[in-house]
Amino acid sequence: MAAQLDGVFEAELQKKITESKVLVVGAGGIGCEILKNLVLTGFTDIEIIDLDTIDVSNLNRQFLFHKEHVGKSKANVARESALAFNPNAKIKAYHDSITTNNYGVNFFQQFSIVLNALDNRAARSHVNRLCLTADVPLIESGTAGYNGQVELIKRGLTSCYECVPQPAQKSYPGCTIRNTPSEPIHCIVWAKHLFNQLFGESNEDEDVSPDTADPEAGADVGSAALEKEANEKGNVDRVNTRTWAKQCEYDPEKIFNKLFYDDINYLLSMSNLWKNRTPPKPAKWDAVQEGDGEDGSIVEDSVTRDQKVLSMAQTAKVFGESIKALKEAVGKLPEGDHLVWDKDDKDGMDFVAACANIRAQIFGIPRKSRFEIKSMAGNIIPAIATTNAITAGIVVMRAFRVLQQEYEACKTVYVRLRVNGRNQFIVPETLIIPPKPKCYVCAAKPEVVLKVDTKKLTVREFRDDILIKALNMVSPDVLLDGTGTIVISSEEDEKDCNNDKTLEELKIVNGCILKADDFLQNYELSITVLHKEAGREEAPFEIVADPDSLKPKEEEEKKEAGKQPAAAPVDDAQPSTSKGLNGSSSNGKQSTTVNEVEDDDDDMCIIEDDEDEKPSTSKAAADAVTTPGKSVEKRKHAPEDDEPANKKAKVSSSHPMDDDDDDLVILD
Q1: pLDDT tops 50 at residue 613
Q2: DSSP bridge partners of 413
Q3: How far apart are CA 256 and CA 267, in angstroms?
Q4: Are 63 and 29 in contact (CB under 8 A)?
Q5: Neighbours of 515 (CB within 10 A)
Q6: Are the C-beta atoms of 623 and 543 separated by less than 8 Å?
Q7: Which of 82, 199, 405, 649 can pair with 339 through a Cys bridge, CB separation 3.0 to 4.6 Å?
């Protein structure tokens, strides 16, 4: 290996390579390339962790895996394949999630450097916080198609992964999804919701039934349909979708006619919806099966079938077969368990593609091939093996700099499809971006403002939707400041009695301050609660990381008028990056959102609609915690200050990566 050959590296770097211990988080497209590079370079003490197993779709770009490895642990197979390059290397593999309590601060402190090659924001945020607390350099990387990005995260020196929040997800009003779809993506989102209603984790906000509360529908919505459904007492008996499907034993014909004939007729009874729209055309199972002479046989070759837009008869056949397969799969699960939709699961993907195309046909929307639907279902684009390889190479070269403590040379680097004005396609930043003073993760006093309806939000929703999903905590504890009342406990069953209570019932009202901490992440956050009644289609909560943004404009202008002119914030002066704009807020989504965005899924890389030129390494909301008795002191990335330290949880980003940015220069 290179480090074992004198003269390849400087003597000092050669020694550091052979003596350092490296953690690679993720064994997908980038992770495989990083591991291969580390072994060939001469690193001999490596640990790698990944929860996933190998899917056949991984094989075209994750070159440590082969056909015989399908279904096996990515981390374990990557280790075995890498040892073939250097049998003398010491590689330890973990088939596990990095977010479990087995991998805390003490685990991270044993490494010289951590290299991230993850596929989701929550895990990225988690590793970011632990590396900051453990004071271990982290090299973050990601790709999106032909674009890539590599950046160093070093406590007190650089901005962290969450200094600039992630772009908000694309969302759609619930009534559009359920009543008046007009684009293929509306049908795809509806089909994914239907999967969860029948086989997955049911969510009331994802109900696929017609929305009678649609303001466009008028006062007498569905009166004719309701009359038909009324029982002897004049009441309408309602059962949820899954219960009804079980009652009819998941019969494809009955499910088809209910979803695509009965429910569509119910929508047609909402006459106001169709005054300025083309009304949908209901479809019955028998008529679709006959197919007006269409060939109902399904192409056996999966590649050909994926690229082809199937006929309605073929689609109905796929619909029926996928329901039978999913019924069998869910029947094998323990009572109360459910399936989780995955784009790489054949039956789940077949079901969503078939349902989306049938609904599209009914509403006069162009149908799509299975391949197109798979891409749209996760808002994803195919990963490119070459981009992964280039990005992984830059990661290891940056690792050399970190081992030599040449941090100032570790500027963020972008890989681009087209060369810029200086004929560069590998483009570095001009400077190191310092930590943001009001970052709610790496600041000295992390703080956010939560605007929410305290009369409606339950403690369970506060924990699951805000602390865990929006702020990426793993095991939060929450106290009501001033009273010491425990609102949420990470100890099992300790405060479960609070779960269904509203915040107001626990005396958490406008102006209250909550102290949230996560012992696993060694992180704590102050949350100021402001009561806000949200409209029907408004987000149920909003997270604002800068309290100053809530002050009246006149007050801010007076405050600024009394100050001496100051230099522009680093934030405003920084070159365009994939991190997004500063100064927005994070919105919880009550309306429908497209599949949870993953930053650099090594199977398929996600991009936002307005980020065609950006690598997907956008940053997420986060929180870290310090608990008494910990051996690690609470980190401080900024001087003690009386000002609150905050950052907004989620931000719409529109920073394009301009290919001809003349401010950017090539690294030596």
Answers
A1: no
A2: 150, 428
A3: 16
A4: no
A5: 17
A6: no
A7: 199
- 11-19 helix and 385-403 helix, angle to the nearest 10 degrees: 110
Beta strands in 345-498 (DSSP E): 380-382, 413-415, 426-428, 446-452, 476-480, 485-488
Which residue shows structure tokens 């350092």?
20
pLDDT in tens, 379-404: 656 678 999 999 999 999 999 999 99
- Report the half-sphere exposure of 663 (CA within 13 A, side-chain side): 10
Q: How far apart are CA 153 and CA 77, in angstroms?
A: 29
Do 616 and 231 touch, CB atoms closer than 8 A?
Answer: no
Q: Give whichever of 227-241, 328-342, 354-368, 491-505 has the largest mean pLDDT.
A: 354-368
Measured in residues, the chain has a length of 668
CA angle, corner 599, sides to 593 and 603, nearest 5? 100
- At 349, list the tokens: 């993907």
Residue 25 CA to residue 111 CA, distance in Å, equals 12
The CB density around residue 395, as the number of other CB atoms within 10 Å, is: 26
Residue 572: pLDDT band with limits 50, 70, 90:
very low
Whether residue 32 is predicted with pLDDT greater than 90 in this model: the reply is yes
Report the C-alpha gap between 180 and 598 in whole angstroms. Answer: 28
Q: Taking residues 590-612, what's their average pLDDT?
A: 40
The answer for residues whose C-beta is within 8 angstroms of residue 514's C-beta and 6 or more apart is 478, 479, 480, 481, 487, 508, 526, 527, 529
- Which one from 175, 187, 442, 605 is the annotated catalytic residue? 175
- Measured in degrees and rounded to the nearest 5, phi and psi for residue 465 equal -85, -30
Amino acid, res. 153? I
Q: Give residue 3's pLDDT.
A: 61
Residue 636: pLDDT band with limits 50, 70, 90: very low
Query: How far apart are the C-alpha atoms of 133 and 522, rounded to whole Å?
Result: 7
Q: How crowded is the C-beta side of 9, counted as CA atoms within 13 Å? A: 21
**Pick from 52, 24, 11: nearest CA to 603:** 52
175 is catalytic: yes
Whose CA is closest to 419, among 624, 612, 664, 232?
Answer: 664
Residue with tokens 């770009």: 61
Which residue type occupies 479?
Answer: L
- Say whether pLDDT at 221 is over 80: no
- CA–CA gap between residue 487 and residue 457 (Å, rounded): 13
Q: What is the pTM of this model?
A: 0.65
Q: From 498, 473, 477, 521, select the one nearest 622 (Cα to Cα).
A: 473
Dist CA 188 CA 371 (whole Å)? 12
Instruction: Report which residue type is found at 197.
Output: Q
Whole-number Å distance between alpha carbons of 274 and 278: 6
Q: What is the pLDDT of residue 540?
A: 85
Highest-scoring range by mean pLDDT, 198-207, 232-241, 393-402, 605-614: 393-402
Give the residue-averaged pLDDT of 429-451: 91
Residues 6 or more apart whose CB falls under 8 angstroms from that of 281 comprise: 264, 362, 364
Task: Please compute, for residue 397, the number of CA atoms within 13 A of its CA located in the half-sphere on the CB side.
Answer: 14
Q: Assign 3-state DSSP to the chain and report helix, strand, coil percentages, each to 5.
A: 35, 15, 50
Which pLDDT score, from 0 to 100, does residue 577 have? 32
Mark residue 487 as left, alpha or beta (left: phi above 0; alpha: psi -120 to 50; beta: remaining): alpha
Rounded CA separation 508/502 (Å): 9
The Cα-based distances of 414 to 411, 429, 599 in angstroms read 10, 8, 15
- pLDDT, average across residues 419-440: 90
The pair of three-digit structure tokens given for residue 76, joined into one six-digit string: 């374990």
Query: What local confidence, expressed as pLDDT, does residue 265 receive?
Result: 93
Cβ–Cβ under 8 Å, residues 167 and 580: yes
